Amino acid sequence: MCFKNLPIEFDEAGHARLKGGIPDPYSVTVSRPELQLNEEEREEQIKRLMARNGHIREVNMDPVTRVAGALAVNVVADLENGRYLNAHSQATLFRGYEVIAMGRDPRDAVFITSRACGVCGGVHSHASVYAIEMAMGLAPPPMGTVVRNLGEAAEMGYDNPLHLYLLAGPDYSEVVVKAVNPELWPKAERWRCPKQEHHGFATMAELMRELNPLTGKLYQEGLEFTRLAREKFALLHGKYPHPQTIVPGGVTSTITLETLNEYHAKLGRIFDYAQRMIGVWDDIASFFYEADERYEQVGAAPMNFIDNGYWDDPHAYDATYENCNEWGERRWSTPGVVLDGKLVTTRLADINIGLEEFVEHSYYERWSGDRYDAAPDGAPLSPFHPWNKRTLPKPTEKSWKDRYTWATSPRWDRNVMEAGAYARLVITALAQKEPQRETGFVEATGRSIKMRIPHGFRPETEVEWHIPETWNAFERNRGRAYHYLFAQLVALENLLEAYRLMKTGETKVAAVDHRELEKAIPKEERRGAGFWGAGRGYLTHWLTLDQGKIVNYQIVTPSTINASPRDPWHQPGAYEQAVMNTPIIEDTSDPRKFTSIDMLRTIRSFDPCMPCTTHVSTPHGVVVREVNTCACGAD
Amino acid sequence: MLSSAKSTRAPAARTEISTRVLVGGVAHLYQGDLDLGRVALERLGDLGAGVLVEDLSYGAVAVAQRLEELAPERLVLVSAVERGRPPGTVERRTPDADARTPEQVQRSVADAVTGYLHVDLVLDVAQGLGVLPADTVVVEVEPATVEPSEALSGVAERALDEAVALVRAEIA
User: Fold this and answer.
1) DSSP string of B26-55?
2) 8 A C-beta contact, residue A361 and residue A405
3) How far apart, in whole angstroms, are the C-alpha atoms of residue A74 and residue B47?
């Protein structure tokens, strides 16, 4: 029984059904989560504190991301007591891919929605295709799935180092630490790195110096490895970002032995680098915890994770909703929901029906007329589920009490959730459903994941990622570093499978020749869901087709989940919660020099990607710092 | 590997060793006049031995990596850029020779890796990473329209002729 708030129960065969005897069962006043503090109580508490002393400041940080600048955070900081009393996360851009997709041929959605993000250059294409092929009833042949897996593992090889070294890394670099945490620098100079043998830096000061933007070796190496990953992706799909070879029922790429060999050669360079990356982020966490134990609370949050799993078993995935629990659990990373550190389900159908999207604090209208009361398998479906939601933008004046963001509030079983690449590790470790592949590169133990690294210049070795006791900013970054290795080991296992398929002659990559796809588009009403993932974790596209055209399209990205505002019960979103749990550790003796670095490290640890949180744009493009967006922001 | 401004360039790839001049277009596909950089390349066609004509309408970090590979002696960029000039203005610019601060370059890198596309980002990132040829010229056109469209406006069409002539003069 995984639902505590939604009015859903299961029969003996495991089929979900609505609990009987509840009038208006999905009403937000009927099915409610338990609350620690409601918004009125929080406001009252802040008013009392503000009336009593002058150390409380309201601070607006805009932008807080190193990407695209579409996230602003408003905090109320109590400098004397070192606490953030309140936080509001605001997505400041209106974009509009869901609206643009309406009325179009479903095949267009692949290319349109791909532009929802300029960082995640392939994940939206994939999520879209998964949704379309479910609606069309097209299952890719094994080689088609393997090629997708290889491409997406390559994309994680781009995304993870990009964040760790180009976007989050500077927060821990010599230049930033000397400026905002000068008290740490002498400690960093003395502190011997336990993982020196992995990354080569004797002291934390040396390591931090190499994180310096542009001049640091780690920064430069990060740039180089993002390039290698793009090359791997382009080998398979011709270009990155926004590939044009991902189609319903497979891919259109021509895959030869030479393609696989080239991919192999590039993959082989990564394993030594992955070890270095793990060593760097292990040591950064250890140093900060040792320097001041309050750092364990920076970005602290409950372990509430949601993820769809990633990378399909090519022999299990059949593109049907009816079998999604079975093929989902065969994924290399297991789908699941974790609440307070406990795994409550690994079934994609549960993950799907438990998700609702609320707009009470967003610049959207509540839609009326709910299309479906059940999922395709007959399980009850909330009127707030994305298959029922419609995107109705309604810009209005910003009000923290009312509406303040273009992000929405996705919730699972009405709980605040967090998405992230690291959620894949947590869920896979807990679930232990990762099918034991012949090669055994990855092993889930119930509390950790063991990863066996083949030899490169370094000898073969094993590393182990443990589920941490406290979830915080440092663990997000550390988890992301291990996820990089995890993804590359998935790539290796899929590469071996590709060679095997090549040997047995199973080289077909698509169910239908792409020139014949038009004939496969159904005329009757159909639904589909693309349960997929991104560098930042959970990603799903839902669509409804009728008369061969899209009549509804919905996207929930990981950053929509993490950047969400309050919900109907005034529960803060994941960023907001994490900021309010963060102590102010930086020196605030001179309030004029307050940088809010602890809050910034918190937010950036989520790897916020705001372009895809608010999937919309004006027809004139978006102007940031007098630069125009590429097509990803302009349509 | 790319490095800071003081680094030594890697040798050019063998197949492209003869690239003396790189003519690059920076454009927004089908975004009205912002597509001019790409259209200009079509108009220019083959410019002969030693001159490579290439669409550089992608992330500035990847463009910098391409410059590192090719190591051209001369770079000529052509692009439509909104700077508040009268629409159709054609301007030849040379990049600011002053080195950008690491903070400026880092800001441009962050924009570039998240999908922003602009000729200034190409210049900032390439200079910051030490791969911008000392001899670099930008031929810019002020767009009249930036709404989605497959065609350039009449104003931009007329400016295109002048821009293409300027590019040809640069490599003559």
Assistant:
1) E--TTBGGGGHHHHHHHHH----TTEEEEE
2) yes
3) 54
In a domain, B13, yes or no: no
Mutate to test the interface with A, among B107, B114, B124, B147 (most CBs of A within 10 A): B114
User: B103 and A213 in contact by Cβ < 8 A?
Assistant: yes
Quick check: B127 contacting A, CB < 8 Å? no
CATH number at residue B162: 3.40.50.1450
The phi, psi pair for A310, rounded to 5°, reads -150, 150
List of residues 6+ apart from A239 with CB closer than 8 A: none
Instruction: Provide the residue range defining the domain that includes B84.
Output: 18-171
Which residues, including other chains, have CB under 8 Å from residue A348's CB and lie 6 or more apart?
Answer: A308, A309, A324, A325, A328, A335, A531
Instruction: Report, as an integer, the average pLDDT of A365-390.
Output: 94
Tell me how far apart the alpha carbons of residues A558 and A337 are, in angstroms, rounded to a whole number.
Answer: 14
Q: Which of B82, B115, B148 sits opposite A119 (nearest CB)?
A: B115
Task: Give the helix ranges, DSSP H, for A72-141.
Answer: 97-101, 106-114, 123-136
Distance from CA of A596 to the nearest CA of B (A): 18
Nearest residue in B to A229, CA atom = B62
Q: Output A331 or A58, whichever has higher pLDDT.
A: A331
Which of A41-55, A304-318, A603-617 has the weakest average pLDDT?
A603-617
Q: Is A566 exposed, middle or buried (0-12, 13-18, 19+ CB in 10 A)?
A: buried
pLDDT at A598: 92
> Does A167 touch chain B if contact means CB atoms closer than 8 Å?
yes
Length of chain B: 172
Residue B52 included in any domain: yes
How far apart are the CA of B7 and the nearest CA of chain A, in angstroms?
Answer: 10
**pLDDT of B17:** 54
List residues bridging with A277 in a β-sheet. none
B2 domain-assigned:
no
In a domain, B94, yes or no: yes
B40 and A CB contact within 8 Å: no
**What's the domain count of chain B?**
1
Domain range list for chain A:
56-574+591-634
Q: Which CATH superfamily is domain A56-574+591-634 in?
A: Cytochrome-c3 Hydrogenase, chain B (1.10.645.10)
ipTM (interface predicted TM): 0.73
Query: Is the Cβ pair A628, B34 closer than 8 Å?
Result: yes
Q: Does A117 touch chain B (CB under 8 A)?
A: yes
Q: Give Cα A359 to chain centroid, integer Å.
A: 20
pTM of the model: 0.89
Orientation of helix A421-431 relative to helix A142-161, angle to 10°? 120
Of residues A66, A67, A619, nearest to B148 (C-beta):
A619
Q: Distance, in angstroms, between B79 CA and closest chain A CA?
A: 12
**Contact between chains at B115 and A630 (C-beta distance less than 8 A):** yes
